[in-house]
Amino acid sequence: MQKTASKALSVITEDATSAWKALNGIICIYKPADVSCHRICNILTYKISNELNQMKCRPCGDYVQIEGDPLTQLTVVKKQNLADHPLVVGPRYNPNNLRCSWSNYLGFNTSGVLLMGLQNGTKTANLIRSNKLMRAYRVKGLLGRATDNFYKDGKVVERTTMGFIKSHHMDRLLSVIQSSHQRKMFDATGVDLQSQTAYDLAVKGQIRPVCSKTPLLYGIKCVDYQPPEFTVEIHCVNEYEMYLKALIHEIGLKLHSTAHCTGIQCIRHSYFNLDHALLQKHWTLQHIFDNLEECGNIISQHENMTNNNTIVIQ
Amino acid sequence: MLLQRFRVFLNLRQLSSIRSQELQHSQEGNSAFKEPSELDLVENETPQRSVLDECTDDISHVAPYLKPTFNFAAYVNKSHTLQELVKLNVDLSVLEKKPEVVSFILKLEFEKDVKDLVIFLSEIGVDDVGAFITKNPFILKADLDNLHVRVNYLKSKRFTNGMIASIVTRNPIWLSTNTQDIDSKLGFFQKEFQLTGKEVRALAVQQPKLITFPLQRVKLNTFVFKEEMGLRDDEVKSMLLKKPNLFMKSQANLLKTFEFLHKKMNIPIERIVEVPEVLMCRLFRIRQRHLFLDSLGRAQYNHRNPNYVSLLQLVSGSDVDFSVDVAKSSVQDFNLFLKSL
């Protein structure tokens, strides 16, 4: 099965036209930190079009010209149409013509799994975004220092002691945060948490907010605690980078100390995890095609990625 | 962008009217450019003849004006000059992005304006004349005598023919810079870094772009090396001769890379001066590789101690070579590590 697939791909990649047509769907890439999503779009489209231009492209068309004296003899000549030559009209594939957009926006300092739609896949990317699927983050923090922008590159505004904080303090606080978010969800649905209706709702699956602005945490726990450093794993929807940074800051304050964020990594987006993600050095046409196929399979296997019908709260 | 496009549009519009005027005055011109000349039409019209009579005159030259256009493609099938430029491998699609170049190129005549230059360039040893003109189209404006003077200047400074060919091919702007400027810039490098004549020639051949690079930027990078990094004059000189590209790099990136090497990796300045290639490497690459070595406990850059990793090995080679030869691990492990950053 795999052999035939790779054979078909190698056939595609000889001819630029069929490769261009095959560029449709979702790819999963690994976004490095300190690069914006816009920049990644630009890099991807530039690299893809560059590679397509090096492949066998469409030849120039014909130019038909009538030559000679009209009173005596006229001849029809067929020449190469220079107006269609790559040196005159530019390379056959232009980065601007390749549509590319992300389905989950990751902020500048965030690294990790980023789903990108290519060509018609941008519609799928849009659907995945509007379906508010859960994402998992691993956020690193450092106790004892607060910065002005809650991140490591900010100016330190406060230093505190942190030796008294033990791992069970952290766990207790995080479980309080998690339960308050869970209660918030059920409050918004308007049912009593202790009722049968609430149970039925919970059985149906994750409860999602209808608006895309309110962040909701489904789970938060400390996976690594080596003071002063700690790592929290967060499952959430509608989050944004500043929210996660501020959450770490808040954790520091609640523990009677201070903290700032030192790294944010998205480790999972719905059914896509780090194993599917393409590293920056693998953003080449061959790898992208393999990834398109792999991601297409995952999306077709899981209908709820594009058509989610679990409970929505207002 | 839109404004620029509009300007090109206007230029072309003016140009097409200029073309038609020229052709009205001189009937020779290019046969492909057959514009209706109003004067001719007036002369040919004999008052005795009725419009209902059969027309036996050759009116095939009566054709509509060339329409205003946004690119060269509309003209290329009719213009002999443009066709010859395409044959030379000139990338017209690059040229048309600069509005002032478009009107200039369209007014050229191949036999008169371009041919001699092409012969001259191939004589001094430029292999790809098309790429040269694509990079520096205004060379076509320059006087051939001036170009000869500039080449002779280099010969007088004891540059060999091979050196001149290499310089001119790799830096097409060089020939457009006048002799006084080139002389003062070579003089600047000689004085600023105390180079011998031989070293100046070696520098010009190794990185010809540096000589025509804005001096302000070179001075800024020299400041970064001397004051911000604290290098001695002879150390800066050795870096210039080993890796001239460092003086064209953006100073902010240069300093960031240096700070990572010196402060995070604890590499002494003397070692960085010995291997200036590390400063040319992109920061994310050094950081990835250093952190990987660090996680394996192999980040040992002191050549006096065992298990030493050379700086050159750290920045050169593919990831496969690095992870197997330097880190004594596998690419799969390295990739997994990269996904944890």
From TrEMBL, chain A:
Residue ranges constituting the Pseudouridine synthase II N-terminal domain according to the UniProt record: 109-238
Pfam family of the protein (one): TruB_N
One Gene Ontology term of the molecular function aspect: pseudouridine synthase activity
GO biological process: pseudouridine synthesis; RNA processing
InterPro entries: PsdUridine_synth_cat_dom_sf, PsdUridine_synth_N, Trub2
Coiled-coil annotated spans: none
PANTHER family per UniProt: PSEUDOURIDINE SYNTHASE-RELATED, PSEUDOURIDYLATE SYNTHASE TRUB2, MITOCHONDRIAL
Family note: Belongs to the pseudouridine synthase TruB family.
Protein name: Pseudouridine synthase II N-terminal domain-containing protein
Organismal lineage: Eukaryota, Metazoa, Ecdysozoa, Arthropoda, Hexapoda
Automatic annotation (TrEMBL), chain B:
Gene3D superfamilies found in the cross-reference section: Transcription termination factor 3, mitochondrial (1.25.70.10)
SMART domains in the record: Mterf
Record's keyword annotation contains Transcription regulation: yes
Cellular component terms per the entry's GO annotation: mitochondrion
GO biological process, one term: regulation of DNA-templated transcription
Keyword set includes Transcription regulation: yes
GO molecular function, one term: nucleic acid binding
Alphabetically ordered keywords of this record: Mitochondrion, Transcription, Transcription regulation, Transit peptide
Residue stretches spanning the membrane: none
Compartments in which it is found: Mitochondrion
Main subcellular localisation: mitochondrion
InterPro entries, per database record: MTERF, MTERF_sf
Family under the similarity heading: Belongs to the mTERF family.
Protein name: Transcription termination factor 3, mitochondrial
Organism field: Photinus pyralis (Common eastern firefly)
